[in-house]
C-alpha cells in the first residue's frame, strides 16, 4: 500500500509544481497589467522592479496554492482514469478514499503552509511592497516627450513636440509655453528643432532650441489687452535650463504603514481590536 501511495504522490507532484508556477506567473502578469501605469516612465532600476515583483509574488501565494492543488488533482486523477489505473486499483479492492488519502494529507500540509505564509510572511511583504509602491508612485517620471501631446512634467513649462526622431532624439516643431512667472500664455516659444537632455546629477534639464521665435506680451498698466506692447524675438539657438526635483528614487519610511490591517498578524489584529474597544466603548 505504501508503494501505491508513493506512486500517487509522485504522479501528483509534477503537475502540482507545474501548475503552481504557471498560476503564479499569470497572477504576476495581472499585477503588472494593473500597475503598469505607475511603473512606466519612472526610470527605475532593474533591482527595484525585481524587488517589487518578489514582494508581489508572495501576495499571490494564497491564491496560487488552492488553484494549483485543484488543477494538479484533476490532472492526476484524470491521467489515472485515462490509463485505466483507477479501474485496476478498484478491482484490487482498494477504495477511492484510500487512493486519495496521500493527497488529502498533502492538501492539509499545503493548507497549513498557506496559513503560515498568510499570517506570518505576507504581512511583512505587504509592508515592504506598499512602502515600495508608494515610493515608486511619488517618483518623478522621466521626461518622455510624446508626439502631438503637451507635457507638463517640466516645472513651469508646457511643451508640445510635433515629431521626434527616435534614432537621434532630435525634436521637431516645438511649441513651448512659459509659466515660470505665474503667467498664463503670455510667453510662447516656437522652434523648428531642439534637443532635450538631463544632466548626470539629474538636477537640471537642458533644452537646446534651434531656429525659432519667442512671442511675449510685455507688462503694462493698460487695461485694454489689445493695446499692450507685444515682443517678438528671432533666434538661431537658445538654451533653456530648468532645475528639476524628485528624479532620485527615495524610499519612504516603513513605519508609516506598519499599523495598517494588511500588515498585521492575527495576534496583532486581536490586540489592535482590544485597544480600539477600550478607546471607543
Can you characterise this structure?
The protein is of the alpha+beta class and 281 residues long. It has two domains: 2-137, no CATH class; 150-243, no CATH class. 49% of the residues lie in helices and 21% in strands. It is built from six helices and six strands; from the N terminus they run H-H-H-H-H-E-E-E-E-E-E-H. The chain has helices at 2-39, 46-59, 61-82, 85-91, 96-137, 266-280; strands at residues 150-151, 157-164, 170-178, 187-198, 204-217, 230-243. Helix 1 (2-39) crosses helix 3 and helix 3 packs antiparallel against helix 5 (96-137). The longest helix has 42 residues, at 96-137. It starts with a helix and ends with a helix.
- How are the strands ordered across the major sheet? 1-2-3-4-5-6
Which residues sit in consecutive blocks of at least 5 with pLDDT less than 50?
none
Q: How many domain units?
A: 2
Secondary structure tally: strands: 6
Helical content (DSSP H or I, runs of 4+): 40-55%
The tally of helices reads: 6
Radius of gyration, whole Å: 31 Å
The chain-level mean pLDDT equals: 79
Structural category is alpha+beta
Reported for the largest beta sheet, the result is: 6 strands, antiparallel
Shape call: elongated
Order of helices and strands: HHHHHEEEEEEH
Ends apart, CA distance between termini? 59 Å
Beta-strand percent range: 15-25%
Amino acid at each position: 500500500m505504501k508503494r501505491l501511495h508513493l506512486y500517487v504522490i509522485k504522479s501528483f507532484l509534477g503537475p502540482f509544481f507545474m501548475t503552481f508556477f504557471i498560476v503564479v506567473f499569470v497572477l504576476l502578469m495581472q499585477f503588472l497589467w494593473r500597475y503598469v501605469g505607475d511603473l512606466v516612465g519612472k526610470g527605475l532600476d532593474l533591482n527595484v522592479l525585481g524587488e517589487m515583483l518578489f514582494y508581489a509574488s508572495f501576495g499571490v501565494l494564497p491564491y496560487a496554492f488552492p488553484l494549483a492543488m485543484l488543477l494538479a488533482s484533476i490532472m492526476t486523477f484524470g491521467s489515472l482514469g485515462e490509463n485505466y489505473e483507477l479501474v485496476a486499483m478498484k478491482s484490487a479492492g482498494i477504495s477511492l478514499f484510500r487512493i486519495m488519502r496521500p493527497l488529502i494529507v498533502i492538501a492539509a500540509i499545503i493548507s497549513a503552509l498557506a496559513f503560515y505564509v498568510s499570517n506570518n510572511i505576507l504581512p511583512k511583504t505587504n509592508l515592504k511592497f506598499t512602502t515600495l509602491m508608494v515610493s515608486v508612485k511619488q517618483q518623478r517620471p522621466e521626461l518622455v516627450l510624446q508626439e502631438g501631446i503637451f507635457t507638463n512634467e517640466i516645472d513651469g513649462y508646457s511643451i508640445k513636440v510635433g515629431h521626434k526622431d527616435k534614432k537621434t532624439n532630435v525634436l521637431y516643431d516645438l511649441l513651448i509655453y512659459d509659466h515660470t512667472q505665474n503667467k498664463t500664455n503670455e510667453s510662447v516659444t516656437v522652434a523648428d528643432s531642439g534637443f532635450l537632455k538631463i544632466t548626470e546629477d539629474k538636477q537640471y534639464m537642458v533644452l537646446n532650441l534651434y531656429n525659432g521665435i519667442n512671442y511675449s506680451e510685455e507688462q503694462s498698466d493698460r487695461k485694454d489687452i489689445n493695446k499692450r506692447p507685444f515682443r517678438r524675438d528671432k533666434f538661431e539657438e537658445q538654451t533653456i535650463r530648468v532645475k528639476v526635483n524628485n528624479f532620485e528614487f527615495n524610499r519612504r519610511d516603513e513605519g508609516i504603514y506598519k499599523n495598517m490591517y494588511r500588515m498585521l498578524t492575527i495576534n496583532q489584529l486581536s490586540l489592535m481590536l482590544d485597544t480600539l474597544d477600550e478607546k471607543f466603548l
